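Sequence in, structure out. Go.
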Amino acid sequence: MRLFIAEKPSLARAIADGVGSLHKKDGYIECRDDTIVTWCFGHILAQLNPDELDTRYKTWNMDDLPIIPHPWKLKVKPDAKKQFQVIKGLIGKADLIVNAGDPDREGQLLVDEVLEYVGNKKPVKRILLNALDDKSVKEALNGLRNNEDFRGLRNSALARSHADWLVGMNCSRAYSITAQAAGYDSVSVGRVQTPTMALVVRREQEIMNFHPVNYYQVKVVWHHENGDIPTIWQMPKELDGLDSENRLIKKEVADELLASLVNQSGTIESVRTERKKIAQRLPYSLSALQIEAGRRYGYSPQQVLDTMQSLYEKKFTTYPRSDCDYLPENQTADITAILGNLGDLGDKTLEDAVKGTDAGIRSRCWNDKKISAHHAIIPTTVRCTFSGLTEAEQNLYRMVALAYIAQFYPVHIYDSTKIEVGAAGQHFAANGKRVIEAGWKQLYQGSRSDSDEEEDTPDLPEAEEGDAVSMKDGSVLSKVTQPPKRFTEATLLKAMKEIYKYVKDSSLKAELKECSGIGTEATRAGIIENLLKRHFLTLEKKKLLPTEKARMAVKVLPPEITLPDTTAVWEQQLEAVSEGRLSLEDFEHKQEDIIRGFLSHARSTKIETAKDAAICPNCGRPMARRKGKNGYFWGCTGYPDCKTTAEDKNGKPDFSKKKSSVTGLVAKCPVCGKNLRQIKGKWGTFWGCEDKACNASFTDHKDSPVIVKCPNCGKGYLKRFESRRKKGTFFWSCTERCGKFYDDKKGLPDV
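Output:
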C-alpha cells in the first residue's frame, strides 16, 4: 500500500482527486491503485516546554538558565492526538510513504518529524506541489523524488526550530525576570521578532531626533527654438551658503543668482541621449505581493496571505508562500490555456490586457536556474469564477494575473536625455524621458509598478550642443527636509526582506543583499501580528508605533539580539544547512554559545522602574503581571519578602479586592527560629513563618504575635477563633488539638 501524508486536508483532497478518490474515511481517503491519502494539520508535534523537561522549570529562576534540551524531545499536540493515531496506524500498514508537505522547509519537516517520531524504517518518496489544479497534481504524481534528497531542507527547518526555542525560552525568561522586577510586563524575546520590533523603535527614535532643515533650489526655464527646457541650478561645491549635505540654506544666495539671470542668454553645453530598456516586471513572490497590496489597497500582510491561501485552496492560483518570482520553463506549455481563461472572466481590466498579449514572447521570468522548491505565484489553468470572489480575492487575483500577462508584452523602451545649459558662468541641468514603446508598462498606467522607481520626467525638445537659449522664467524653490516615514505593516515586511539595508556592520551588506532577509515568506506576516498582540507595537492610522515596553526592550537587550546582523547571519547559516554546507550539529553548538553570552548580559542588566509601573501598597516595590492556573494576576516583585497579590483587571492590578499581603513587620518564630511575618489576609491579620516547611502561624494582637504555649499539653500554641454558634464571640484553642479551650479576654487567651 502506498501512503501519502499531506500537510493539510485541502492538499490531501487534491492529491486524492489526482490519484482517483474512492472512499472518504475517518482521517484518510482511500484511492485507486492501492493508495491511501491522510493528512496533518500543520505541525501535529511540538517541542516540549521547559517545565515538561523538568518540573523545576515551572518557576522562572535565573539560576536554572540556560535550558538546553539534550536530546530534543517532541510531544503530540492535544488537539491532534486522534489524527496522529490514524497516521501512525497507516504508516504501520504502508509499503511506501510519500511526504506531501508544502514545498518549503517547514512542509518538509512536519511530515519527516512524524515519520521519525514513530520510528519509520520504510522507503519514503517526496512530492512537490506548487498548485492544486488537476494538471499540476498529476504532473507532480509522475515526478516523485527520493525524500532523502531533501534532508538538508529538513535539517534547516529543525535548526530554525531549535534556534527559535533556545532564544525564546531562555532569553524571554531571563529578561522577563529582570523586566518584571522593574514593573514591566513579561518580555517575549524572539530570534526574528525582536530585531523586527527594534526596526520600529529605532525608526521612531530617528523621527523624534529629527530636526527639519530649510533649503533652496533655483529652477530656471530656458527657451529653445524647439521648446522650453526646465533646469535646476547645479551649485558649485565651494559656494557660500551650503551645509554639510551640500544643500543651499541661504535664500539670499538663490535670490541673487536668479536676479543675475534676468534677460540673460545661454548655451547648450551638452546633450546626452541614451536608449534604455526595462524588461518585463517579474511575477509575484508572497512578500512582493504583500508589499504592493499594502501600498495599493492597505491590506495587512496577514490579510494578503490568508486571501491567497483561499485562492490557492480554490485552485485558482499557485502555492502562496513562495519566495521565488521566476517560473520553470516547462510551464510555458500552459500559457495559451491561462491567457485564454484570463481573457474570459468577465473582468474588463483583464480582458483588455489579454487582447494585447503575444504568447510567443519569452521574458526573463522563465528560468529553471532560479527555481528551487517554489516558483512565482501565478494563475492556474483552472478557470476562475471571478464574480464569486470576495473583493479582496478579486483585487489580489487581478494583481497576480496582470503580472503574469505582463510577461507577454514587449519590453518598455525609452530615451533618457540629459541637457546641460551654461549661462552667466553657472551650470544648469535638465533630465528628460521620451517613451519609444510603452510595452508592458501600459498595463500599469495610472499606478506605479513595483519595478518602476523612477520619478516622472518631462519630454525635452530636440537640441544640439552649441544651440542658443534665453531665460524665459525662473523661481526659487523652498524645500524642507523630511523625517523618515513611520513603518506600515507592508513597509516593515519589506524591511524584513531587505534586511541588508539595516545592518550595523557594513561589511555584511554585500553578502546579505543576496540573503532572503529575516523570517520566511510564510512567517513574516505572523511575526508582525504577534508584535501587535504582545503590545510591543500599536497601529495608529496604519502606522506602526512602538510601546514603552518595546523601547525598554531595545534599551536593555544586547545589540546582538536587537540588531538584524546576527539574525540575518543565522538565516545565511540556515541556508547553508539546507544546502549541506553546514551540519545541524555545528549550527546548534554555535547557537548554544550565543545563548550563554546573552544570559551573561541579562544577569548584569538593571532596568529602571517603569513610568507607569503598578506599585505594591505594602512595600513600595513594583508589581508584576503574571499568568497562573486561573488566568492573569499581579504579584509583588519583592516576593518572597512581600507576598502581596492582586487580581488583574483590564491589564492593571485591582487592589479593591482583599488579598493576603505582607506588611513588613517581623518577629522570631518560636518553632524554627526563623522569621515570622505579619500578614493581612482575607480573614484578618495573622503572623506566618517564612519557612514553608515550618508553616507555623500565630494570632495577631496589636501588631504583635501572640505566642502562648498550651498549658494543657505543652506542645502546641494557642490560636484565637470565632465561635460558630455565637457570632462575635471568640475562644482560644491549641494548635495540637489537645481538646482544651480557653476564653478570650480582650484579644488574649485567659489562661
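Check: Residues 151-180 form the longest helix (30 residues). The chain has a mean pLDDT of 91.
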